[in-house]
Amino acid sequence: MNAADGVEIAPSQPWQAPHLEALQVRCFPTLGAQELMRAEHFLRHLEVFPEADLVAVAHVGRDGAPLAEPEVVGLGSGFFVDFDFDDPGHTFRELIDDGWYGRHDPSGAWYYGADVSVDPAWRGLGVGRRLYDARKDLVRRHGKRGIVAGGVIPGFAQHKHAMSAAAYVAKVVAGELADPTLTMQLRNGFEVEGVLQGYLEDSAADDWAALIVWRDPSFRSADEALRSP
Ligand SMILES: CC(C)(COP(=O)(O)OP(=O)(O)OC[C@H]1O[C@@H](n2cnc3c(N)ncnc32)[C@H](O)[C@@H]1OP(=O)(O)O)[C@@H](O)C(=O)NCCC(=O)NCCS
Prior knowledge:
Blueprint: E1 7-11, H1 17-27, H2 39-48, E2 53-60, E3 66-81, H3 92-95, E4 110-118, H4 127-141, E5 146-152, H5 165-174, H6 182-187, E6 191-196, E7 209-215, H7 222-227
Coenzyme A binds next to strand 4, helix 4, strand 5 and helix 6.
């Protein structure tokens, strides 16, 4: 059995909040501390939108042995907004309301992907893919258009002296370079719509990120449904 088969993905519970705070620190070593969410943020999310935090919990270890305590190994987090694609520039902290998710709008057309992260010890096993699948399922169940996010580009660090962020992202999209995060998002059906300067404090990537979008192919607006029922 793949160890990731023993990982359950479900909306968060209050006991997980301090574990999610610790997971942020393990997963984002190059981000400024003010970019990371803390236990109190995760507790607030439960009040704002109970499905905001989808948590991956392992019940067996990577070696297949049962764990004495369930272990928080991943997070897929976000909320609904009306995203303006004609004016897409934004910073991470502004959109996530400094982590409090105060801009959550239940009637917003898009899911804003605020965070996807898998414990370094659990990467490469398909947990990230399953978190994306759970988010896509959430989008379909709520009748949203898709997922929009600012995607960090950690691999840009090795290339930033040789090319611009836009050129780097174009090479990753073309498959000429692989990025630890963006490549994974492209494999999960995301498309790049541009780059975002000053998106978040990320020393590795000089604060650059990619604007990424996944459009639900099964989405039909009310108008479309009326035209061809
Ligand atoms: C990005 C992240 C969530 C991926 O999680 P993961 O559990 O390792 O991903 P998976 O094992 O589900 O891999 C999903 C796909 O991406 C590919 N992939 C994963 N890591 C990769 C890497 N470093 N380079 C290239 N491809 C990669 C896998 O091959 C897989 O493709 P496939 O399903 O077609 O075979 C994880 O690496 C992480 O937490 N990174 C740090 C935090 C971060 O940057 N989050 C994104 C914020 S925008």
